[in-house]
Every structure is written in C-alpha cells, then in structure tokens.
Amino acid sequence: MKRPASFFFTRVVRRLPSSPARLLAGAAALLLAAPLASPAGPAGPGDGIPHYRVAPANIPAVSLPHARIASPAVTESSALLPSRKRPGVFWTLNDSGNPPRLHALRADGSTVGPEKGFLVPGASNTDWEALACTPDGLLVIGDIGNNKNRRRDLCLWLWPEPDPEAPAQPLPAARRLAFRYADQTDFPPPARHYDAEALFFADGALHLLTKHRKPGADTWTTLYRFDHLDPDQPAQVLRPLARFYSGDRVTDAAITADELRLAVLTRSGVWLFTRGQRGDDFFSTAAIAWAPLLAGQCEGIAFLDAATLLVSNEGSQLFRVPLASLHPAGRATLETSGNSVP
C-alpha cells in the first residue's frame, strides 16, 4: 500500500544495546546557542511539499563524558549503528578515500573483531556516509555523500550483517542498489541540496535526510523514502516528502525500538522528535527537543539506551548525550507548502 507523502516513521527495525560498563574520563560542553537564524522562506527542492519549523530556546551547558575510539583504522567515524547480532556493539565506517570496510566497536571505544575491520566484498567506497539495518538483518551502507552535487552514481550497498565477534566467517558479496533524486535535474544544481549523510528505517522502509550545502540554505533538510530495496530493479527515483528547518547540516539519524523517537544529528546539535500517537504527519504532531553540541565534527549517532544517545566525531571520540539534557522546543509549525524553489 502506498504511503501518504507526508509519511515520516512508525517502526524501528533493530533492538537497542544495553548501556556500556564504562566510558573513559573526559568532557565536552554543550554550546549555549540555538540554531542559526533561518533564511527568509524555504529554500530547496520539493515544490508543494510541507515545510516545518520550530524555534528552540537556549539551554545550559552540559558535560558529556567521552571515550576515544581505540582502533587506528577508524580515522573518520561517519556513522553509528547498533549491531543486531551483538548488543552493546556498534558498527561505524570511514567516508571517502578509505577502503570499503565496516568497523565494530563498543561504547567505551574498544575494538570488536579485526582491528582493520570487515572488508565488504564486491563493494566500493566513493563516499560512504550512513548506516541502517533492515528487519531481517541486512546492513544498508549509504554511498550517498555528494559534496559537489555532481554524482550520478549514488547507491546503497546491501550486505548481510556479519557476527562482529566471530573469529572467522565467510562474507558474501554486497549488492548495489542505485538511486537518484526525482527533483535533481542539474549536476550540480545552483542550490546544492543533494548531499546526504543520514539514513533510518521506519515501518520497514528506508528513509533519507539530506544535507544542504548552498550558503544560506543549509538550514533545511529534506526527507525522502525508498519504496523498495531490490537491487535487481532499475535505479530507484526518490521523491521528496517533507522538509524541516534543522538549523544546520544534518550528519546522521537514529531511531528507537518503540517507534516513538527519532534523533537527528547536525553539525551543531541534536534534534529529538517524539510523537504521541501513530500517524503519518510526524513533523506537525511530534514533540520536539533540541540540544546544541560542542563536540567537534560529529557525524555518527545511535541510541545507547532508552535515556542516552551515543555520538561519534571525526576526531575518533565518542560522547554520551542524556536525553534529559535536551530542551523542549514545542511543536513545529507549517511554514509553507514550498511553492517556489530558490
């Protein structure tokens, strides 16, 4: 059954790990700042789709205990995903310029499995930026980085999750699923809205949030949905569903097992969306919270437990963000239906 265009999320497809035994000493601070002022009116693709905005207040600084990723092979942690096979273990990856490998670690930064990581047979790494997992344990590696908005080879790599603690195991080849954005007609377009670093599953469907790069317009993110994950089909065409004023460039996303909370990481903070009832139009009905972060270039996020987020940065650090430290921001307002594209 085709879902309405305003669909956002309903079902998570993975179990969350338990809290780690410890985290190394250290601290980072939350920055006393709300997101950057938004440009006048919406900016970007998606004529006719809803645009939502919320204005959070400033919040006090909060210390974040952190750990350091032990493996020297993890040089630019660009995603975090809880393992479905091993609670307490997380998958991460390096982005462009690195071998096609996944790395397993614990929340204290210790390495799980081979120090060099797990080579993904049959895959290539043009610009890996995100991870997700299907209900049946298929890892989805997002080769979705598109800094210059010129790529015509955007794709997902689909790979059965290996056991990160198994000493030796046969690893099947990954399968490639190509896709493109329905609303991108120029390569690159004047408004560079087709970079992405965030994937998450909801109601059995994969969703993507974009990372806008046009100066003055990178304060919005656009939501897209994959209608299937069949690599035997022609390149899938993604159509925009809705847009949200994220205040900065989105770098990752994570969703809870109870289907009620979605965390969206940006370069400067974390958004938390909590819906009070099942429904399609999530942005307009969710309770929203926000916390600005001062923790380096953060690009990975996962739920450590029901009350804590785990965040990684490209400096090989891991941070805990208590959900209690996020400040309620109210509910989003519908700003426009996006009748123009700057």
Kindly summarize this structure in a few lines.
It contains one helix and 25 strands.
Ordered list of secondary-structure elements with their pairings:
Layout: E1 51-53, E2 66-68, E3 81-82, E4 89-93, E5 101-106, E6 111-112, E7 118-119, E8 130-133, E9 138-143, E10 155-160, E11 175-181, E12 195-202, E13 205-211, E14 220-225, E15 236-238, E16 240-245, E17 250-255, E18 261-266, E19 269-274, H1 282-285, E20 287-292, E21 298-305, E22 308-313, E23 317-322, E24 327-330, E25 333-336
Parallel strand pairs: 1-16, 11-15
Antiparallel strand pairs: 1-25, 2-23, 3-4, 4-5, 5-6, 5-7, 8-9, 9-10, 10-11, 12-13, 13-14, 14-16, 17-18, 18-19, 19-20, 20-24, 21-22, 22-23
Rg over CA atoms, rounded to whole Å, is 19 Å
Query: What does the overall shape look like?
Result: globular
| Unreliable parts | 1-45
Number of helices: 1
CATH class: Mainly Beta
**What is the β-strand count?**
25
> What CATH architecture would you give?
6 Propeller
Walk me through what this model shows.
The chain has one helix at residues 282-285, and strands at residues 51-53, 66-68, 81-82, 89-93, 101-106, 111-112, 118-119, 130-133, 138-143, 155-160, 175-181, 195-202, 205-211, 220-225, 236-238, 240-245, 250-255, 261-266, 269-274, 287-292, 298-305, 308-313, 317-322, 327-330, 333-336. The relative contact order is 0.24. It is globular. A hairpin with a 3-residue loop joins strand 22 and strand 23. The chain has one helix and 25 strands. With 342 residues, it is mostly beta strands.
